[in-house]
Amino acid sequence: MRLGRGKPDASKPVALPGHGDLLTLAMTSGERLPARVLERGVNTLLLAITVATQPLSDGELEGLVVEFTAPHGRVRLQGSIRLEDPAEPDVLRMDAPRSVEVLQEREYVRINAARPVLVYAGSDLLEIQSYTVDLSGGGFLLAGPDTLEIGEELSFQLALNHDVMPISGKARVVRVDRQGRRAAVFHEITDLDRRRLVRFIFECQRTERHRGLREEHDGN
Description:
There is one protein chain. By secondary structure, this protein is an alpha+beta fold. The chain has two domains: 2-105, Pnp Oxidase, Chain A (Roll), CATH 2.30.110; 111-219, Thrombin, subunit H (Beta Barrel), CATH 2.40.10.220. The chain is built from two helices and 14 strands. It has helices spanning 58-62, 191-219; strands at residues 2-6, 22-26, 32-40, 44-49, 65-70, 73-85, 88-105, 111-112, 116-121, 126-136, 139-142, 153-158, 167-176, 182-188. The strands form two sheets. Strands 2-3-4-7-6-5 form a six-stranded antiparallel β-barrel. A six-stranded antiparallel barrel has the order 9-10-11-14-13-12. A hairpin with a 5-residue loop joins strand 2 (22-26) and strand 3. The radius of gyration is 20 Å and the shape is elongated.
């Protein structure tokens, strides 16, 4: 859940993604392109667009925004962007990046939990069976599918227990880790379903604490 929208603090260094990190290039047209960091310098980034696309025009490059997830929230950067080499239109250089907006997210407790989830994605909303790797009140880490791209929206039905109604809503893929798992943040979920999810996480934590206490007692 979004708490606020912070203005950049000129006294602090600009947060930059790391080498190999996946991110999103947001265009003024609304199109979003997945990309990866090839090189990171003191005040520069070398980026590679990871999908087939037409070469970007000077106007499109000028309005491009780099979006990525940092520990304190989602970060949006702008700067001087140009083609690194005209022969390679999918490789871009960003110089003098500056933070234009930081979207701070409420921190939720996260637990490791493998729960079944139905994912509906793509223009035809194809149903795909997957499962969560971890859960929080703000999103989940999905084991798959590997067809989901950063920035892509999906609908989901998350089963917490077999005897209760699943939690449903919509989420957006914000990160792909090195194991190919997709981190998604909720952007459409009812307050009731979020409370149900937070309650489930709390119950899982309590069960784990009780199990740990029993094991400690048995060990003594």
